[in-house]
Amino acid sequence: MPVRTVSFTAMSEGTKEDYAILAKTEEEFTRTHADRVLAAVQALEHSLAGYQVSRLEHCLQSASRAHRDGRDEEYVVAALVHDIGDELAPVLTRRDDRGRDAPVSR
User: Fold this and answer.
1) Where are the alpha helices (DSSP H) in the chain?
2) Nearest alpha carbon to residue 45 among 29, 37, 57, 32
3) What is the largest CA-CA distance in the chain?
4) Nearest-5° Cα angle at 4, 21 to 35
């Protein structure tokens, strides 16, 4: 089934029908949000190689530790997903002369 698109090119020109289309597609997209987040976490299994544990294992360890420490649900979830952005922007830091992360100067 083809995706319906809005008729406008400027938001101020949108009709009630246009915004109904957007509401429906947003609802459908939002419904699968958790699945997309979990897929991004699972993809960390095959992320940067060479470490003792995969990024997935690292994130699972972080979330497990947060849970054992009695952190709230939001904190545990944040620990679980904290590396998924690295797949999109993997080099935003560099190592300084002591091996610590340092911001990349541009």
Assistant:
1) 16-31, 33-43, 55-68, 73-81
2) 57
3) 59
4) 75
- Which residues does 8 contact at the CB level (< 8 Å), separation at least 6? 14, 15, 18
For residue 1, give the amino acid letter: M
Summarize pLDDT for 26-72 with one digit per residue, the tens: 999 999 999 999 999 999 999 888 889 999 999 999 999 999 999 99
- What is residue 88's three-state secondary structure? coil
User: How many other CB atoms sit within 10 Å of the CB of residue 55?
Assistant: 21
Tell me, rounded to whole angstroms, the distance of Cα 47 from its chain centroid.
14
How many whole angstroms from its chain centre is CA 15?
32
* Domains, the chain, ordered by start: 32-103 (1.10.3210.10)
Go through the chain and tell me how many residues it has.
Answer: 106
pLDDT tens digits for 60-96? 999 999 999 999 999 999 999 999 988 877 666 667 7
Element (H, E) at 93: strand 93-95
